[in-house]
DNA sequence: ACATCATATTGGTCTATGCCAATTTTAAGC
DNA sequence: GCTTAAAATTGGCATAGACCAATATGATGT
């Protein structure tokens, strides 16, 4: 019947959050521990969950602050760039290479094993803050993709205008995942931070596999939206 | 550059997992702590993440065991029951009441405030293990729903056959959430366990809002799948 | 053999503490 | 005033340990 002690503290801290507005600093961990007559460890566990839920943000040496829990929508079939209007968003190309398709990749893109696959890794940001990592895999060499993509920004737009590939169907698989050490570093979150992991297979106007994508989105900042009708 | 210490232990435990098969017991926390020359606290943090990822399962007094990380797919527009073929699944009705629509509910279902809304809360299980909580809200009293639903099992089938409501469009919003104390208890997971939270608005053949649903799915056991074409 | 009860084992929770790292604040020097 | 350096503050990370709760084990008695 009784709640875990850390959870009680979480509820009490939520009250503090409710009384203030985003940007306000809450009391220090040591002060909260003393005020609520508990250990700093327990307070930190409570705060950790509130950070994961996007209600708090903390910085070493500065303090812990009330955050704005708004979420960005990622829609099916619309690229990231189309969906983040109204924000100062940008996209950093982390890498664009041609690799040889392994067994799994070959199956996903329906190409022979060892054939050339183009891999594009991008970091998505909003107001300079990293929010998502997307790794797209395309069947073939796609010569000149670097330059064409640079000019347009949107991958799907580039595929359509330059390579005649019109993405017309897609299947997304959405699940939770915990940030691995390297992804956590790139995204600026703690190792183990919950993420939305999206795997997408997309097909062109002829029904051929055109893209296989893996996206990692900060769980506290994103919501995946899918609409369907028949 | 260096990895967090608990994360190193996580990788080492993953090696142990890789060498065995589901059901095998791994060494106790105290033994792992001694073997890896670290504290039990650090080992527990590593194990906690592996539990969240579905790689381990632990029981007080028994031990920690290698788990089978398979995930169940939840598809858009198909009910839970249609999707879990091959498993011994069942559904427990936690509650079926008629309530008055509040402001938010009224807006979501496009009905007047204070009008009657039917709320159906169900617990979804597989082989007796609770896996998901779904709360559906329907606009209107839906007399006899208890009996009709009992006979058919599937809500969408009941709506179609008995009430002439054919769900023909839906929008799902998928995000991560941490299990609150009561939901954690119902699902048999720890408080704070990552979940997939799905909000669905569904419309009938005339474009009228027919359902508003909130689902909580264990993040370690589910994957949301959405397919679209144009 | 079987059931019962005490004991040991194992995970669950919380505490107290130490030290490090990033940042802010204060003091010192010019 | 301004810059620079030292000190204090605050979160980050890991440790050791105490005690509890659930389960498994082994001893005991019949």
UniProtKB/TrEMBL annotation, chains A, B:
Q: Where is the HTH gntR-type domain?
A: 1-69
Keywords (alphabetical) are: DNA-binding, Transcription, Transcription regulation
**One Pfam entry name:** UTRA
Q: What CDD domains does the database record attribute to this sequence?
A: WHTH_GntR
Top-rank taxon of the source lineage equals Bacteria
What name has this protein been given in UniProt?
A: HTH-type transcriptional repressor DasR
């Amino acid at each position: 019947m009784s709640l875990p002690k850390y959870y009680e503290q979480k509820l009490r801290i939520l009250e503090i959050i409710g009384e203030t507005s985003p940007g306000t600093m809450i009391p220090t961990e040591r002060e909260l521990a003393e005020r609520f007559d508990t250990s700093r460890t327990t307070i930190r566990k409570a705060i950790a969950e509130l950070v994961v839920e996007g209600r708090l943000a903390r910085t070493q040496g500065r303090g812990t602050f009330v955050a704005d829990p708004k979420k960005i929508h990622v829609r099916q079939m619309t690229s990231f760039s189309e969906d983040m209007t109204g924000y100062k968003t940008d996209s950093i190309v982390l890498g664009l290479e041609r690799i040889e398709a392994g067994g799994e990749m070959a199956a996903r893109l329906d190409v022979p094993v060892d054939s050339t696959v183009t891999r594009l890794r991008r970091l998505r940001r909003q107001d300079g803050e990293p929010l998502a990592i997307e790794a797209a895999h395309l069947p073939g060499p796609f010569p000149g993709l670097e330059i064409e993509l640079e000019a347009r920004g949107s991958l799907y737009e580039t595929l359509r205008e330059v390579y005649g590939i019109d993405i017309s169907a897609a299947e997304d698989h959405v699940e939770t995942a915990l940030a691995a050490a390297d992804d956590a570093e790139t995204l600026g979150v703690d190792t183990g931070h919950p993420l939305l992991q999206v795997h997408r297979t997309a097909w062109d106007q002829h029904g051929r596999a055109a893209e296989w994508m893996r996206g990692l989105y900060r769980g506290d900042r994103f919501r995946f939206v899918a609409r369907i009708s028949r």
